Amino acid sequence: MVSRLVIVKYTLQYQHKGPLDLRPEDYAQQDDLTIEEGEPVLMPSVGDYVALKLTQANKLNAYKVVSRLFGYSGGWCHINIVVTDLEDGEYAGVLKE
Question: How far apart are CA 27 and CA 42, in angstroms?
Fold first, then answer.
């Protein structure tokens, strides 16, 4: 049996889901996130906090990761990360500005 190394490229897409929503919104983050083969990939896990331009044009806001979905096709790994709003005061416990 011969094994071969498969190099995969990645796309990352963040979607917003409100605290009372059953599904994420249809739109994704403003920034195009494509990681080429051989580049290191740092992805947040469920429960992590991220700062993104997502729900307001050109405004960076903090969100909490609620799920990650990985899909594979044609040498690509498509990663969809769903985030939600932080509870009141939650951001103050994460980062002191």
Answer: 22
CA gap 65, 46 in Å, rounded: 5
Q: What is the pLDDT of residues 2-33, one digit of tens each?
A: 666 667 788 888 999 998 899 988 877 767 67
User: What is the β-pairing status of strands 76-84 and 9-16?
Assistant: parallel
Outline where DSSP puts E strands in the chain: 9-16, 33-35, 49-53, 60-73, 76-84
State whether residue 16 is helix, strand or coil: strand
Picking from 1-10, 22-31, 36-45, 75-84, which range would have the lowest pLDDT averaged per residue?
Answer: 1-10
The strand order across the sheet containing 9-16 reads 33-35, 9-16, 76-84, 60-73, 49-53
